UniProtKB/TrEMBL annotation:
UniProtKB keywords: Hydrolase
Alpha/beta hydrolase fold-3 domain ranges (all copies): 37-228
Annotated transmembrane regions: none
GO molecular function: hydrolase activity
SUPFAM superfamilies noted in UniProt: alpha/beta-Hydrolases
PROSITE patterns hit by this protein: LIPASE_GDXG_HIS
InterPro entries: AB_hydrolase_3, AB_hydrolase_fold, GDXG_lipolytic_enzyme, Lipase_GDXG_HIS_AS
Family assignment from sequence similarity: Belongs to the 'GDXG' lipolytic enzyme family.
Protein's name in the database: Acetyl esterase/lipase
Origin superkingdom: Bacteria
Pfam families: Abhydrolase_3
């Protein structure tokens, strides 16, 4: 993948807006259909940046997405729901004029994220459903960080979950006093209503501490009638994910845009 061209910058949401970087798709979907993906980086809610999001954004562009990577507000300075609210405002801004970025009137809107960003992406899908807008074609969740209890077998196997691990510190910074932990937008894996959501591709790493909660969320979406594919992979690397992500984007965009198979 060619990484020599620097991404373009733009601001999303109410002025002054959140800074974002744009990566143009390098692989076609069907005809003039395009997949516009709002991407949210990892970092346990307290870390991560546009620079750290670049490798994943490049990979997603190679898979066929027009990627907008967002520099959302981080905890503890900005606890829940600050980062989520800023991300939703950015999503609404993209939905207002998607063709401005893709050049095609046939543009399907996606959300995606990794780790803490996967949490935000899942919550955005819930918000879009509850507010009946914007219309999402799909959600791409990569090792999403979803459960503040940190009690899964994969957490224990990875020797994570103690009060000093990065996930515990991240949840504490994001949720504060913990009262917010019951809110479905804060912890989507605990949401009681998961029907009516955008189709999902959930990717996780075999042996990773977040693997169990990623697969648990995929199973919960499926139990509520959702269109879900989940893969537990040896690595989130081009040879493992380019084709599954491309197929997901193509099929979800086709359904959203009512294009023939």
């Amino acid at each position: 993948m060619d990484k020599t061209v620097a991404p373009a910058s733009l601001r999303l949401g109410p002025a002054p807006g959140q800074l974002a970087h744009v990566y143009t798709a390098r692989r076609p979907l069907d005809g003039d259909a395009r997949a516009l993906l709002l991407w949210l980086h990892g970092g346990s809610f307290t870390d991560g940046s546009l620079a750290s999001a670049r490798a994943r954004s490049e990979l997603l562009a190679e898979a066929g997405a027009d990627v907008v990577a967002l520099d959302y507000p981080l905890a503890p300075a900005h606890p829940f729901p600050a980062g989520l609210s800023a991300s939703f405002e950015a999503l609404q801004a993209l939905a207002a004029k998607p063709a401005r970025l893709t050049g095609s009137a046939r543009t399907a809107l996606f959300v995606g994220g990794e780790e803490a960003g996967g949490n935000l992406a899942a919550a955005l899908a819930l918000m879009a459903r509850d507010q009946h807008a914007p219309t999402l074609a799909g959600q791409l969740l990569v090792s999403p960080m979803l459960d503040p209890q940190l009690g899964s077998a994969s957490m224990r196997k990875g020797e994570c979950g103690g009060c000093e691990c990065s996930y515990a510190k991240g949840w504490q910074a994001y949720l504060g006093d913990g009262i917010r932990a019951d809110h479905p937008y804060a912890t989507p894996v605990n949401a009681s209503r998961l029907n009516g959501l955008a189709p999902a591709l959930v990717l996780s790493l075999a042996g990773h501490p977040l693997n169990d909660e990623s697969r648990r969320y995929a199973a919960a979406l499926r139990q509520h009638g959702g269109c879900v594919r989940d893969l537990s992979l040896p690595a989130i690397a081009p040879e493992q994910v380019l084709n599954p992500i491309h197929d997901f984007l193509r099929e979800a965009a086709r359904r959203a845009l009512s294009l023939p198979a």
